[in-house]
Design a protein that fits this description.
Elements lengths: L1 H21 L26 H4 L7 E2 L5 E3 L4 E4 L9 E4 L4 E4 L6 E4 L6 E9 L5 E2 L2 E2 L2 E9 L5 H4 L6 E10 L5 H13 L6 E3 L17 E6 L10 E5 L4 E3 L1 H7 L26 E3 L5 H27 L1
Parallel strand pairs: 1-8, 2-16, 11-14, 11-15
Antiparallel strand pairs: 3-6, 4-5, 4-12, 5-7, 6-7, 7-10, 8-9, 10-11, 13-14, 13-16
Bound molecules: zinc ion.
InterPro entries: CA_dom, CA_dom_sf, Carbonic_anhydrase_a-class, Carbonic_anhydrase_a-class_CS
Keywords: Lyase, Metal-binding, Signal, Zinc
Pfam families: Carb_anhydrase
């Protein structure tokens, strides 16, 4: 009798397991867990465009694999203002701060128009790698084109979304702005869907690296389901510092299954038939050449005058 009941229970669990793993609803996706040694062996297998797309993100960044780019300066409008009524949300996949002020925008830097900041969120470790190195944390500042009313509308259009990626490296000193996020995250870390007001003012500008004139640029996708291929990416090679203790505080945030979200980065995707651009303010060899020509001109003029005088 007990054996029959146990067999029945196993069958019910098996059916439940098949039903659960067969589901592809967006809110049921998860990041694969690392094995006991910390290595992630399981592919994401999120389905749809995440698996079939040819212009997916993140990618492995490297100057050696990039082509030279030269755009105008990247302009951050009202990035120095603290985010108004800033709320931190545990999304079950990350922690996210939403922005409702449509005057916080980016433009220039080769972007095809102006883009409004919708939200910022974090991935621990980084999604993009540089020269094969993964960073401790990656901040995504997600913007939508002003040509479309909302982020949801813009996600359906190529270049409708612009994401700025900021990488963080481990250093001795904590980052006080990341500290503001983490102090608030303590109150919401155990319950996905929970929201709390930020415990201190936070301006998006305070999370950016000092040097914003050099960056990687490519066309890709959102890094979470449904992985829409509508994103124009800008990732700075200059990283920002935070402490190891701060990195560990992200890892105890709970996911939608009630487990600690030890990591929430997607594996790097193939570049396929895309160009990776490395843009910076290049020193022009032609400038220095024309400079020497202009200084040489009076000397040549003087020689000509002397030649004429000597013939007179
Ligand atoms: Zn992201």
């Amino acid at each position: 009798m007990i054996i029959r009941k146990m067999k029945c229970l196993v069958l019910v669990q098996l059916i439940a397991c098949i039903l659960f793993t067969g589901s592809t609803a967006d809110d049921e996706w998860h990041y694969p867990s690392p094995d006991p040694t910390g290595v992630i062996n399981e592919p994401e297998a999120w389905g749809g465009q995440c698996d079939s797309g040819r212009r997916q993100s993140p990618i492995a960044l490297s100057r050696a694999a990039a082509v030279r780019g030269e755009f105008g300066p990247l302009i951050f409008n009202n990035y120095k203002l603290p985010i108004r009524q800033a709320l931190l949300t545990n999304t079950g996949h990350s922690v996210q701060v939403n922005n409702n002020d449509t005057s916080v925008t980016i433009q220039g830097g080769g972007l095809p128009g102006r883009y409004v900041l919708d939200q910022l969120h974090f991935h621990w470790g980084s999604e993009h790698t540089i020269d094969g190195v993964r960073y401790a944390l990656e901040l995504h500042l997600v913007h939508h084109s002003t040509l479309y009313p909302t982020l949801n509308d813009a996600v359906a259009v190529k270049n409708g979304v612009a994401v700025i990626g900021v990488l963080f490296h481990v250093a001795a000193q904590p980052n006080m702005h990341i500290g503001t996020i983490l102090e608030t995250a303590i109150d919401i870390r155990s319950v996905p869907g929970q929201v709390a007001p930020l415990k201190a003012k936070l301006a998006p500008n305070s999370l950016l690296p000092v040097n914003r004139t050099a960056y990687f640029r490519y066309e890709g996708s959102l890094t979470t389901p449904a992985c829409a291929e509508s994103v124009i990416w800008t990732v700075f090679p200059e990283s920002v510092a935070l402490s190891l203790d701060q990195v560990d505080q992200f890892k105890v945030i709970h996911d939608q299954s009630g487990h600690e979200l030890v990591n929430n980065y997607r594996s790097v995707q193939p570049l396929n038939a895309r160009s990776l651009v490395y843009a910076r303010e290049w020193e022009r060899a032609s400038d220095s050449a024309s400079g020497s020509a202009s200084t040489a001109f009076p000397v040549m003029g003087l020689l000509l005058v002397l030649l004429v005088i000597s013939k007179v």
